[in-house]
Amino acid sequence: MARPVWAGVLSFGLVSLPVGLYTATDSHTIHFHQLQRGTSDRIRNRRVNERTGKEVGLDDIVKGFDTGDEYVLVEPEELDDIAPGRSRTLEISGFVDLDQVDPIFFDKTYYVGPKGKEYGKVYALLEKALAKANRAGVATFVMRGREYLVALKAENGLLTLHTLHWADEIRDPFDEVPDLPEKTRVSAGEMRMAEQLIGALSVDWDPEAFRDTFQEKVAALIEAKKAGESVEKAEPPAKATGSVDLMEALRASVERARSPKDTREKATTASGKRDEKRDEKRGGKPSGTKKRVTSTSEPLHALTKAELYQRAAAANLPGRSTMTHDQLAEALSAGSRRSGKR
User: Fold this and answer.
1) CB 7 within 8 A of CB 98
2) Exposure winner among 34, 109, 251, 333, fewest CB in 10 A?
């Protein structure tokens, strides 16, 4: 079982509940060490005096605030003297409507657990009451030498604590982001088409349906480099949609979102008809609509880049990871011609 990162007393009114906070999330980011190129030597960060170039020990380091003309020096003990003591109390100052809290304020999440089975009833009562009222308890408390603004919520049968950003930590988007539209006019047709697209792409929230594909590709890159292989480069990003062709892009998006199966079937049928006509011209029997586009008899340029790359990998084609779609097709064709001559 995990150890709590903080333990203390949660109080609201005259009711108190001993609790512990447990980290609710984890990171699966792949971490790299820094090495000097051409060696296996690790690069280390050192605390160095920028004037003398000599390393400085932690005991000889003080904090300094730059006023512009000079540094105001502050000793670590002086910060401890003015900071609130290690807090053991999380006192709810009030309960707010969750719909009034802007999502931008939420930061990190912790699970809240009772410190003992004897407190189960108080814990369950608070969880059920918060869930029914759709409210969150707001409090401030100190953890690890830092004061936090937090919200206590009921989620799926347990209590969770969310650290919140302070109001002065939220930046004004109009000061930070250039070119934000203020009074841009959109036509009724564009609005209607955009709403239809949103409706066509509506899904139920299922976090298990998403995965970190970039981290998977990083792991695959590491494995490929270990084996002395290369990997396929990602496709370039799509071009930005301009205002001139916005309506057509919306219309095409709605049609594709509404009937992806029909679109695939139409493409397969059209491909099959082309194959039949081609076979009839050659004097053979029609191949039918069941003929796969990715069959070995299909011209290489008709295959997708992913399908071409699979064939290139099977043929151990050198330099395949840097090739474009057409380059892969040409290299595979050249390889086939050389094999036929032998």
Assistant:
1) no
2) 34
Structure tokens of 171? 């930046």
For 129, the token pair is 């009451």
The residue whose two tokens read 């071009």 is 239
pLDDT of residue 304: 75
Rounded-to-integer distance, Cα 150 and Cα 95, Å: 11
Residues 317, 320, 324, 325: what is their CA dihedral angle, to the nearest 10 degrees? 50
Q: What is the pLDDT of residue 266?
A: 45
User: For the chain, which residues score pLDDT lower than 50?
Assistant: 261-275, 277-278, 281-282, 284-297
Q: Whole-angstrom Cα distance, residue 155 to residue 227?
A: 46
What pLDDT is recorded for position 303? 78
Domains, the chain, in order of start with CATH, read 6-25+83-169 (2.40.290.10), 188-196+212-257 (no CATH), 292-341 (no CATH)
Strands 135-143 and 158-164: unpaired
Report which of 284, 308, 305 is spatially closest to residue 296, judged by C-alpha positions: 308
CA distance 173 to 183: 16
Burial of 229 (C-beta count, 10 Å sphere; 0-12/13-18/19+): middle
Contact 301, 293 (CB under 8 A): no
pTM score: 0.63
Q: Taking Cα atoms as reference points, which of 100, 84, 177, 167 lies closest to residue 133? A: 100
Residue 152 CA: distances (Å) to CA of 21, 95, 267: 11, 9, 53
